[in-house]
UniProtKB/TrEMBL annotation:
InterPro entries with a match to the protein in the record: TRIAD_supradom
Transmembrane domains' residue ranges: none
The protein, known as: RING-type domain-containing protein
GO molecular function terms listed in the Swiss-Prot or TrEMBL record: transferase activity; zinc ion binding
Tagged with keyword Iron-sulfur: no
Gene3D superfamilies per the UniProt record, alphabetical: 1.20.120.1750
Pfam families cross-referenced by the UniProt entry: IBR_1
PROSITE patterns associated with the record: TRIAD
Domain RING-type positions: 22-270
Keyword presence, Zinc: yes
Source species: Scleropages formosus (Asian bonytongue)
Keyword vocabulary terms for this entry: Metal-binding, Repeat, Transferase, Ubl conjugation pathway, Zinc, Zinc-finger
């Protein structure tokens, strides 16, 4: 049986007293098929195993390992945003064994990428974690001990460090450039059809942590960063609560379109 067939076969057990069943439409897909059994999440919104699985899988595909409710609050254009535990998602999405394996492996990898910034030393290939996110000059203790002298490499070009340090822009090796900045400068423009066809750069750096993100060109203008989990406006680059003070999810921002970014914010985890 294929994955698609397995998802189509998912059903709630009507006799499961641990679930609260409802007859109102699915709050993710808005489907109101009277023959489909829907259950209520802890935030009060209704789902089916299929809609919940598809939504949470899409979050993982976007690099997000925290499952947030996408439904709109009743009578508003604001998203619920409630955080669902994996245990709740696993139960109400009726995840298969293969799906559980996929979800758990993806969640573990994404969580590790968020909390640990590490690369392989070009000298000994051991994994090194960078403690100072503003300094590209990184010392490898293993190479330094083996060589009997300080060995430093560039976090950006992954070559032995050349030139004075510390530095936050580049070392003096040929070709050492900030590829993320180059992407921000040269990425194409995209059109957001549901936000008055506004045009903006296709890639933005999260204003909180600096992670480069793309908009899928559908839905509203706001996205949730997969690393710091902050929601921000892709158009004006304000955090969503500030953007919504003067415009809605689907309106052009009062400050217009923010220009291409020429620097990348550094995430201070102690003050998120």
């Amino acid at each position: 049986m294929t994955t698609q067939q397995q998802e189509q076969e998912k059903r709630y057990d009507p006799g499961d007293s641990t679930l609260k069943f409802v007859t109102r439409p699915d709050d993710i897909t808005l489907d109101d098929d009277p023959d489909t059994l829907r259950a209520e999440m802890s935030c009060g919104h209704a789902v089916t195993p299929q809609s919940l699985t598809a939504w949470c899988r899409s979050l993982l595909d976007q690099g997000q390992y925290k499952f947030l409710c996408p439904a709109l609050k009743e009578g508003t254009v604001k998203k619920c945003g409630a955080l669902w535990s994996y245990q709740e998602v696993r139960k109400l999405a009726v995840l298969t064994a293969d799906e559980q394996k996929h979800f758990e492996e993806a969640m573990a990898a994404l969580a590790a990428a968020e909390f640990c910034e590490y690369k392989s030393c070009p000298g000994c290939l051991s994994v090194v974690e960078r403690e100072d996110h503003m300094n590209l000059n990184v010392r490898c203790t293993i190479c330094s001990a083996e060589m009997g002298q300080v060995y430093e490499f560039c976090w950006q070009c992954l070559k032995q460090w050349k030139g004075p340090g510390p530095r936050s822009d580049r070392c003096e090796n040929d070709g050492c450039t900030n590829k993320d900045l180059e992407l921000l400068k040269k990425c194409p423009m995209i059109t957001l059809p549901e936000v008055n066809n506004v045009q903006c750069p296709a890639i933005r750096a999260c204003p909180t942590c600096g992670l480069l993100v793309e908009h899928d060109k559908t839905g509203c203008k706001n996205i949730i960063c997969s690393r710091c989990q902050k929601e921000f406006c892709f158009v004006c680059l304000k955090l969503t609560p500030n953007c919504l003070k003067t415009s809605s999810y689907f309106e052009l921002c009062s400050d217009g379109v923010a220009p291409r970014q020429t620097s990348i914010p550094c995430w201070n985890r102690s003050n998120p």
